[in-house]
Amino acid sequence: MRSSRPRPKAPGRWGAALAVLIGALLISATSAHAAAPLSWSAPSGPSGPLTAPTGAVAISCPSSGLCVAVDGAGDAIVSTDPTAATPQWSLANIDGSRRLDGVSCASSTLCVAVDSEGAVLVSTQPTQPGSWTRTEVDASHPLSGVSCASSTLCVAVDGEGGALVSSEPAAQSPAAWSRSAIDSKNALSGVSCVGSELCVAVDQAGNALASANPAGGAGAWTVHRIGYGAALKAVSCTAGGLCVALDSEGRALTSIDPAAPDAAEPLALGPTWSVTRIDSSSSLSSLSCAASGLCVAVTEQGRAL
Length: 305
Known about the structure:
The chain has strands at residues 21-24, 39-40, 56-63, 66-71, 75-79, 90-93, 100-107, 110-115, 119-123, 133-136, 143-150, 153-158, 162-166, 177-181, 188-194, 198-203, 207-211, 221-225, 232-237, 243-247, 251-255, 273-277, 284-289, 294-299. The protein is mostly beta strands. The two termini are 34 Å apart.
């Protein structure tokens, strides 16, 4: 295992590591119509080069004062000033050589990451590299995303259509997580929960799965077609029901009623979802939206759009 100490930034170029897009949410507070598309501003990123071995693949920003990203080489990439003119980022290995595929911070004192070998990594001090602990909770399935709405609710999803729910995510015990098969036909790629009243997961077939009771088992989730058939790669929801999803065609889909019935036409956009193409190379991989109106997206190549 590599050292968990933050790695010094090299004096050279900005490598293929982490890119962020800051989006202003221009969403009206209506409920029966499609949300207005996001308006994306100029990108920002670390002032100095930060080279993650295979690029950041997921990010969570519980506030404008903390962002935590993870990459495919077991690293966490942390900033306490992500919106500054010259933000600073530090990189530390937290999971050996295993691939990390998701991270969620309920607050500055609880962050949970998930890896490709069915384990969760938990930290109550995410700015401290040595504070992460690893627990295998779904050893037979790779975990692909996680969302922690609070210190008493975390939901992770896996590549076999399963959702794992915990009311004690910091317990460091497999028994603290229970798994339900909520999407038997497709791999789940992301999940976002707002309190206990709304969780939305997305899959590789362009579906969103919504639940008002994520701990209620498979029957508590309903499937909704929201896209044009493209794989959905990530989703982030905020208080009030706003959800933003990213698809494999570089589009951001936005809704303020993510659990609305499906569109009448087989390949039509869901009735409450609007769409904006924000990445012509179709390489968006993850995003995080905060109640403050800040959205941050990352690309697979580590570049800003």
